[in-house]
Design goal:
With 140 residues, this protein is α/β, with parallel strands linked by helices. The chain has a single domain, classed as Class I glutamine amidotransferase (GATase) domain (Rossmann fold, 3-Layer(aba) Sandwich). The protein has a three-stranded parallel β-sheet, sandwiched between helices. Strands 1-4 form a two-stranded parallel ribbon. The longest helix is centred in the C-terminal third of the chain and has 12 residues. The chain is globular, with a radius of gyration of 14 Å.
Length: 140
């Protein structure tokens, strides 16, 4: 996803539980540009949660990660997740246990439970281009 975002001209930043480096699925080291404590979701146009069982398990153990995702959702931003990353959307109240979005076609939410659909990258980038999904906004 990060490469697809960069190719599309987006700036992709990594937000992690701590600053420094984090390990990717294949053992690759990624630089955390922000920590969950130093980078509020309001600073970003979209949030994408990649798969990786160990990474997602770590994120689910924090209070900050589900709050980060839920806040971005409430601000009508594009939200995406693949593979195990969908579990964080479930914990955040955005997706149900079967990986479906609550309203079935919730605008701006792209879920790829299998983590292998190439079209989910395109869907996420297209949704990001809209900037916000105001039709999700709750009227009070």
């Amino acid at each position: 996803m990060k490469q697809a975002l960069l190719t599309a001209g987006a700036l992709a930043m990594t937000v992690a539980p701590h600053l420094g480096t984090v390990s990717g699925v294949g053992g690759e080291l990624l630089k955390a540009d922000f920590s969950l404590l130093t980078g509020a979701s309001v600073l970003f146009d979209a949030v994408y949660v990649p798969g990786g069982d160990a990474s997602v398990a770590t994120l689910k153990e924090t209070d900050e990660a589900p709050d980060f995702v839920a806040e971005a959702y409430k601000h009508c931003k594009t939200i995406g997740a693949s593979g195990a990353g969908v579990q964080l959307l479930e914990v955040s109240g955005i997706a149900t246990g079967d990986g479906e979005v609550p309203a079935q076609a919730d605008p701006g939410v792209v879920i790829d439970r299998e983590g292998s659909r190439g079209d989910s990258r395109t869907q996420f980038i297209t949704a990001m281009a809209r900037h916000r999904h105001w039709e999700r906004e709750k009227v009070r």
